[in-house]
Amino acid sequence: MDPTPRWLTSQQQVAWDSFIRMQEKLIGRLARRIQADSGMSAADYIVLVKLTETSGGRMRLTDLAKQVEWEKSRMSHQVRRMAERGLVAKEECPDDGRGAFIAATPAGCKAIEDASPLHVEHVRRLFIDALSQEELDMLASISDRVRAHLESQPD
């Protein structure tokens, strides 16, 4: 690695700062709305979304952690808290006696079904409605490009 830092230009710094401020404000507002509307944390919501999007409504803990870009220990703690509230359950893995699946419970499925319409309305109001379709298409393209670049870089 080159010991000389590649400092950002002033334009690059403005773009980076603007992106970070927008992302933090948007995620913060959405997280507060989820909590107020449903009593779930944003972490509860994303875990239930990922589980209910899969066939069977269950995943291995490590796969779930990868899906949301969390460390395994963070996911373990989150799943434990959600299990205590009856939103998810651990199920034995028939193919691997050491492994287990994390599954959305009926209560977890009901919670996500109830929260999703309100959440999507907030996403629309706070984000989608601020942009034209052309801007949304460009943002999707930029996001895909950055994500692909991230995949090609070491962690």
Automatic annotation (TrEMBL):
- InterPro entries in the record, alphabetically? HTH_MarR-typ, MarR/SlyA-like, WH-like_DNA-bd_sf, WH_DNA-bd_sf
Q: What is the top-level taxon of the source organism?
A: Bacteria
Q: Which Gene3D superfamilies match?
A: Winged helix-like DNA-binding domain superfamily/Winged helix DNA-binding domain
Pfam families, per database record = HTH_27
The molecular function terms in GO held by this entry are: DNA-binding transcription factor activity
Q: Where is the HTH marR-type domain?
A: 1-148
A Gene Ontology biological process in which this protein takes part is: response to stress
> By its UniProt entry, which PANTHER family does this protein fall under?
MARR FAMILY REGULATORY PROTEIN, TRANSCRIPTIONAL REGULATOR, MARR FAMILY
| Name the UniProt record assigns to this protein | MarR family transcriptional regulator
Q: Tell me what organism the protein belongs to.
A: Micromonospora sediminimaris
